[in-house]
């Protein structure tokens, strides 16, 4: 429990930081509940408990992956919000799923943000059609991600290149083979 010492004319008084604070339903599931004095009662009176998310101990999520999707509604801000939410929920491994509309600078920023938040394992899911574009593999390796997940079309879906033309499975795998030659860890995933 926090204790602050405040100087007064007559000597030193002690201020208890837990005074005026309360704990609610989210606190029961929070990883830091034993160390946290709670929220100010005035805040709870004005805003309630609904928007609060309890912190999760990362040990409970060991090995689990938080998936962040750039195709989700919103902009870069929603990607950052998704990363923060994963961190709060205790995930320490993240997959960044980019779509065709992502620009390189934005993806670079997402990887840097994931690293700055402290994610231990950062992977990028990339479409096989985009991997065969000139310089694409070089840019992925330059990001220093831990893994690249190559997304392949599944079922009766016809593989297409970025211009929309149909292409062969061999051409789709060209980028994955380049990753292998460059010793970049990768995995193949069939798109649902």
Percentage of residues assigned to helices: 25-40%
* Number of strand segments: 9
| Alpha plus pi helix count | 7
Largest sheet: 5 strands, parallel
Output the strand order for the largest sheet.
5-6-7-8-9
- Strand-pairing-aware structural class: alpha/beta
Approximate strand percentage: 15-25%
Low-pLDDT residue intervals, each spanning 5 or more residues: 1-10
How many whole angstroms does the radius of gyration measure? 23 Å
Instruction: Specify the overall morphology.
Output: elongated
What is the distance, rounded to the nearest whole angstrom, between the alpha carbons of the first and last residues?
A: 50 Å
Can you write the helix and strand succession as a string?
EEEHEHEHEHEHHEHE
Average pLDDT confidence is: 77
Structure description:
- This protein has about 190 residues and is an alpha/beta fold.
- Helix content is about 30%, strand content about 20%.
- The chain has a five-stranded parallel beta sheet. The chain has a two-stranded antiparallel ribbon with strand order 1-2.
- Strand 8 (about 145-150), helix 7 (about 170-180) and strand 9 form a beta-alpha-beta unit.
- Helix 3 packs parallel to helix 4.
- The chain is elongated and about 65 Å long.
Descriptors for this entry?
single chain; 192 residues; alpha/beta; 5-stranded parallel beta sheet; two-stranded antiparallel sheet; elongated
């Amino acid at each position: 429990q926090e204790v602050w010492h405040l100087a007064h004319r007559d000597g030193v008084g002690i201020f208890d930081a837990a005074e005026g604070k309360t704990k609610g339903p989210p606190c029961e599931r929070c990883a830091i509940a034993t160390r946290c004095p709670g929220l100010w009662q005035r805040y709870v009176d004005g805003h309630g408990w609904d928007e609060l998310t309890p912190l999760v101990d990362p040990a409970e999520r060991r090995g689990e992956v938080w998936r962040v999707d750039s195709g989700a509604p919103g902009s870069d801000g929603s990607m950052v919000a998704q990363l923060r939410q994963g961190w709060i929920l205790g995930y320490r491994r993240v997959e960044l799923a980019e779509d065709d509309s992502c620009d390189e600078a934005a993806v670079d920023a997402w990887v840097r943000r994931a690293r700055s938040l402290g994610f231990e394992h950062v992977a990028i899911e990339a479409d096989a059609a985009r991997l065969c574009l000139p310089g694409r593999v070089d840019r992925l390796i330059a990001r220093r991600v831990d893994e690249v997940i190559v997304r392949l079309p599944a079922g009766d879906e016809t593989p297409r290149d970025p211009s929309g033309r149909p292409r062969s499975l061999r051409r789709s795998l060209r980028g994955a083979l380049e990753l292998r030659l460059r010793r970049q860890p990768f995995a193949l995933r069939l798109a649902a």
